[in-house]
Design goal:
The protein has four helices and no strands. The longest helix has 28 residues, at about 25-50. The chain has about 110 residues and is mainly α.
Length: about 110
């Protein structure tokens, strides 16, 4: 499955498709990004705190589900901006390649 195929299917469950305004419903989706990222961080915190960092297959499945939720939110926001997940992935890889070539992959700042 490609990113574009995923996005097309995921958008069937997105109530903001076709909207050209930043509505309350869309803001709830944007906020969902940070919520899901927080849930993923929380899962890792508990694995580290309660299991001394030793994660098992069940932990990995749980994290995969949370990453899937995060991907859904990213898909929705990217669709709202008119940029496909496929294009976002390409842009990101180009940015990372450029940083690696310039030796600033581990630096700080958006425009390094």
């Amino acid at each position: 499955m490609t990113f574009d195929e995923y996005q097309k299917q995921a958008l069937l469950t997105d109530g903001t498709v076709g909207s050209s305004t930043i509505s309350a419903k869309f803001i709830s989706i944007v906020l969902g990004l940070s919520g899901e990222a927080g849930e993923i961080a929380e899962k890792f915190k508990k694995i580290y705190r309660e299991k001394n960092g030793d994660w098992d297959d069940e932990d990995k499945k749980t994290i995969a589900k949370e990453l899937g939720d995060l991907l859904w939110y990213i898909s929705s926001v990217s669709n709202h901006t008119g940029i496909s997940l496929e294009e976002i992935a390409k842009i990101n890889l180009e940015k990372l390649k450029s940083r690696a070539e310039r030796g600033v992959i581990f630096g700080s700042g958006d425009n390094r």
